[in-house]
Amino acid sequence: MNIPINLKHKPVIVAENYDDVDGKYAYNSDAKGLSLGLAQWNDRGKVDISAKVWRHTGGKWSRQSEELPLHRVLDLAILISRSTLYFRDAYKHDNFYDKENPQIDRIGLQGDAMTVAVCDDNERIDEDIALFQQAMTDSDELLSERLRTLSRILKEAGY
User: Fold this and answer.
1) Sign of CA dihedral 77, 50, 30, 152
2) Cα separations (Å) of 33 from 5, 18, 54, 89, 101?
3) pTM of the model as a whole
């Protein structure tokens, strides 16, 4: 299934078989493709690149398709990577986190820092973090494969 090229997001680089590799949804995913291209929010004289997940309902392209600026995609990768590292040792804490200090890290970006923390405002955090930790464990093979691939490509690129 080819990604549409007649919409506001203009694909340049595509992975049109994403539904074959979409983690636990592989071969049964509504996310049919990924693309990097010219963002739909571009104004005259201003060009941004975005990443898009293309969803298809079986009958039509879905409005639930998501488009993100590339830096946000990378910020999500940073957040996933840091969270994965955190949960390796989270078992050392009661309820998988330190209630006195829920902050996990501050990661320097653009002269400031992104604070990564357990969301202790969540009224059901003890239950939810246990479910999250179990889901991370269950997804370890899928996530590890992708993180190793990302690491290898970043090393090849000199990062």
Assistant:
1) negative
2) 12, 5, 5, 35, 40
3) 0.85
